Amino acid sequence: MAKSLASSLSLIYVLCSSRKSLLRARVMDFITSTAILPLLLGCVGLFSLFKLLQWLRMRAYVRNAVVVITGATSGLGRECARVFHAAGARLVLCGRNAEDLEELSQELAASRAPE
């Protein structure tokens, strides 16, 4: 009888300890699952803030600066002209084709003027 009582008590202890470990595992899963989302959102928010500040600083650096762009009639030079104009720079455009340069200057003048 004492032997069966001891085995019953050990069985109860095993069941309780397994429930406790299961409960601990569930609590840890809940904590990690609920902590990951705010941590992830915080990191995304900080990264977005960093990129915004970097963009504002670059925009302020280029504003009212004189930028000379060679080969502005097509390709990369044309895109650079658009980007620098949008950032508020004053442009000096150089290219081989005068008609394309005139077209680009009219396109940039028609776009929103930088503030």
What percent of residues are in strands?
5-15%
Arithmetic mean pLDDT: 80
Whole-number total of structural domains: 2
Low-confidence stretches: none
Counting DSSP H or I runs of 4 or more residues, the number of helices is 3
Indicate the percent of residues in helices: over 70%
**Largest pleated sheet:** 2 strands, parallel
Outline type? rod-shaped
DSSP summary, beta strand count: 2
Q: Rg to the nearest angstrom?
A: 33 Å
**Distance, first to last CA:** 93 Å
Structural class: mainly alpha
Q: Tell me the strand order in the biggest sheet.
A: 1-2
Q: Encode the helix/strand succession as letters.
A: HEHEH
GO molecular function: oxidoreductase activity
InterPro entries: NAD(P)-bd_dom_sf, SDR_fam
Transmembrane segments: 35-53
Keywords: Membrane, Oxidoreductase, Transmembrane, Transmembrane helix
Structural features, described:
It is a single chain. The protein has 115 residues and is mainly α. The protein folds into 2 domains: 1-53; 63-115. It is 75% helix and 9% strand. The chain has helices at 2-62, 75-86, 98-110, and strands spanning 66-70, 90-94. It has a two-stranded parallel ribbon. Strand 1, helix 2 (75-86) and strand 2 form a beta-alpha-beta unit. The longest helix is centred in the first third of the chain and has 61 residues, at 2-62. The model has no long low-confidence stretch (mean pLDDT 80). Keywords: Membrane, Oxidoreductase, Transmembrane, Transmembrane helix. Belongs to the short-chain dehydrogenases/reductases (SDR) family.
